[in-house]
Structure formats: structure tokens, C-alpha cells
Amino acid sequence: MKTSQIFLFALIGINLALRSQSIPVTGDGYHYYGPNSTWNEYLKVGGHERGTDRASIVATNGNLHVDSKNGFGLYLNHYSKGKTLINPQGGNVGIGTTNPASNLHLVEDGDVVYLRGNSFRTSSGGFGILGYGARGSESSPSTLTAGDNTLWVRGMGFDGTNYHRVAHIGFNAESVAAGAVPGYIAFQTNDGNGINNLVERMRISSNGNVGIGTGTVSPLAPLSVKSNSVSSTNSGLLLEANNSNNALVKIAEKSTNGARLHMYEEGIEKIAFYTDGTSNHISAGNVGIGTTAPDEKLTVKGRIHAEEVKVDLSVPGPDYVFKEGYDLKSLEEVQQHIQEKGHLPNIPSAQEMEKNGVELGLMNMKLLEKIEELTLYMIEVNKQVKQLKRENSELKKELTKLK
């Protein structure tokens, strides 16, 4: 035997004698290695359980336990900074659980699980979660299919018996082509009709369009909102300001062929448009078409094309012209008024109409008044004409006798 081997065995024997330990160990025995010259700590190897006052390596029923001293940490590759490989040939890893159900199974008894990256840097970037999506295997990946997930996050809820899929966010491939894999983000929630019954509620497509309630259909506009129900007046889009004014805009679908637009202020409906065949109306306030400063309930700057217009009268009809006691001016008086004023009596001047506009109901009644006055003038003229005819006939008879 070499001198170095004899010296090594001698050192081991001296160490065992000093530490009252023996090799080999049987039963529940164990070894202590140490103490460490810097921190005066031992390493326990073997036995059937860990010791709270020692770092230990213990085998139980084929399982290997590596534990630090109570209140201390476990370091892997702390100094070498090399790769740390856990189950590279397969198998599940559990953190906070003894029964991992996936490659990495994390259980937290508290409220929050923290994943923190080193984002303290001068350049842009921070902590990220990266999902690689491909079909096939890791060693031989194949092309994705449209709709395939590349990464997803899901929440599960326990009802006392089963875990239900509560909500899901998926990062999916929208289409797949050589050199391009545009994607979309799908937001799903459980509609309460089954453990796994997730329904897509919102989608952000590859072109930036956002769809709410569009389901699996890509949104066609920067913001597309679609209701799956037409039975409620609240189905549609609701915009509400959480302030004292309680401003609110609601676009609702009442039936398959109608929609509604409501605008509220302080809880009072100001404007409402209905297109479901019942009515089209404005409940309050002024409305301007072609103008930003309406001064009446409806102000239109431009032409109006209508088949018929009905005007409710705010002034009485001019039948009073035919009643006894009506002050019908003589034609001489009318002539004098025209010469002095330049317009008919009780009719606004051209300058007034250009300045103030024309109120159709009132103007039509004034014009009808003039027509009725003209009728009276014509009746009077007709009487005079008949009288003149009679007188002319009598004069002719007298002339004939004289001949």
C-alpha cells in the first residue's frame, strides 16, 4: 500500500475518533461532516429525518431530501453560475407541492405568487414570460395551425367538488404563412354552463382592432361591439361617467331589426333615437342639423326634402275676416299703406323676413288672411260690376227709344 493511502486512512480514522462517528452507517444512523472552517456548521448525511439544527441530505423510501438549516437557504450553482438542469430527461417539478401534475407545478398558500426579473438596467426591457408555439416535438417542431395557442393563462375556481375553468387569456396564431405568423389575444370567461365552458368575450386582432362580444369573428373596425342577445334594452354598448353629472350614452338593440341610442345627463334622458319601428324622437334639448348652434328644438341649416309637412297652429285661422265687425280696409287705405310702407298691411317687410326668417304657420295664416280679404274685395267688385251692367242695360234701352 502506498504511503499516501496509509496517510489518508489515518486521517479518516483520527477524524472519526474525534467526532465519535463510524463508517459504514446502518439503520437510522448518519454522518456529520464539518464543521465548516468559516461558519462553523456541519452537514448531516443519512438518517431517517432532517435535523432542524443541521443542513442535511436524507433518503426516505427512494426519495432524496436536501434541506438547509432552519431559516437558511439552499444554493444551486451559486459560485459556478453554470446551468442548473432539473429533470432534463422528463418528469414533473413541484414547488410547494409533493404531487406535481405538470412540468412545473407551483402552489402558493398565500395570496400572491411573485415572479421577479432583473429589470434594473439602463436599456429597455424587464421580466418576461415567453411561450414558444409549435406542433410536433421540441427536437422536431412543425408548423402551427391558425388558432393554435402559443401561450395561455387560466384561472381555476373550486366549487367544493370540482375545479372550474373561470377565465382564460390565450395568445394565439391568427394565421400561418412562410415568414409571417400574425397573432391575436383572446379573452374568455366561463358562462356558468359547465366546468370547462369558456366563451370568448374579447379579442385583439393582429391589425390592432378590438372586438367585444364578437366571439371567434375578427373585429372589422378599431372597436367592434356585438351583443349576443336582442331580448334586453341593455344589450349593446354602455358608456358611463362615474361623476356627479352621471353622463351616460347607451346604444342598445331592442329587436332583430331595430336599435336605440340614448343620452343621459344627471339621470335624465336628453336624447333618444329609436329605429325599431315605434318612433324616432328627441326627448329633450335642441338638435341641430348642419349647424353647431341650434336655437330651437330642431334647427336645420340647408334644404329639407319632404313629401308632406304638417304644422300645428299657434295662431287662430283667419276666418275672422268673414265675421261682422271685421275692419276691412278700403282699397284706398291699402294703396296708401303700400305707398308709405312698401308692403301689405299686417305682412312683415322683406327686410324683417331676411333678418328674422319666416315662421311658416304664422305666415301661412297671414297669407290666408289676405286671400280672404281679396275674396271680400272681389265680392264687392262683383256687386259693383253687376250694378254697372244693369245701369248700362237701362241706358241702352233709353237710347233706343230716343232713336
3D architecture notes:
This protein has 403 residues and is an alpha+beta fold. It has a domain of 85 residues. It contains four helices and 20 strands. The strands form six sheets. The chain has a six-stranded mixed sheet with strand order 9-10-11-12-13-14, with no helix packed on it. A four-stranded mixed sheet has the order 1-2-3-4, with no helix packed on it. The longest helix has 43 residues. It is rod-shaped. The termini are far apart. The N terminus is likely disordered.
Features:
alpha+beta; 6-stranded mixed β-sheet; 4-stranded mixed β-sheet; 20 strands; about 20% helix; disordered N terminus
The low-confidence parts are 1-12, 277-281
End-to-end C-alpha gap:
190 Å
Count all strands and give the number. Answer: 20
User: Percent of residues in helical segments?
Assistant: 10-25%
Query: What would you report as the Rg, rounded to the nearest angstrom?
Result: 49 Å
Name the average pLDDT: 79
Biggest sheet, spatial arrangement of strands: 9-10-11-12-13-14
Largest sheet: 6 strands, mixed
Order of helices and strands: HEEEEEEEEEEEEEEEEEEEEHHH
How would you describe the shape? rod-shaped
Content of β-strand: 25-35%
The tally of helices reads 4
What class, by secondary structure content? alpha+beta
